[in-house]
Write a structure and sequence with these properties.
Distance between the termini: 23 Å
Helix content: 10-25%
Mean pLDDT: 76
Largest sheet: 5 strands, antiparallel
Number of helices: 3
Low-confidence stretches: 1-21, 33-37
Order of helices and strands: EHHEHEEE
Length: about 120
């Protein structure tokens, strides 16, 4: 499981401390109301189910804003910021399709996967 932050509508409003990781988002996603989906930004655990498809490199080397931090935390390498589409399983067992962003370097691997948006 990769920790990813999540703030559901209920958590932002301060009620429903037991709100599930996507809160009302799963219902909005299933009903086709994609404009109402809050993408998690802190604390949601998820795991990638299967392969990451449509992988693209967004930035390489100096183009990456976080490069000094990545080198400090994980070590030197040819860092790339990448994105792709994958099926993910969130903490409550729901399987969703999402666009993921992450950093990777040869010999270090994929680091800091995060959900950018849910895909219908």
């Amino acid at each position: 499981m990769v920790p990813v932050p999540a703030l559901t509508r209920a958590a932002r409003l301060g009620d429903a401390a037991e709100a599930a990781p996507f809160g009302d988002n799963v219902e909005a996603f299933a009903s086709g109301r994609h404009d109402e989906i809050d993408v998690p930004s802190a604390g949601v655990d998820f795991e990638v189910v299967g392969a990451i498809l449509e992988q693209e490199t967004i930035a390489v080397g100096r183009e990456i804003r976080e490069l000094p931090r990545l080198r400090r935390v994980y070590g030197r390498g040819r860092w790339r910021k990448r994105k792709g589409i994958a099926r993910i399983r969130v903490g409550d067992g729901t399987i969703l399709t999402a666009e993921l962003h992450w950093y990777e370097a040869h010999g270090i691997g994929r680091k800091e996967l995060k959900i950018k948006r849910l895909i219908p």
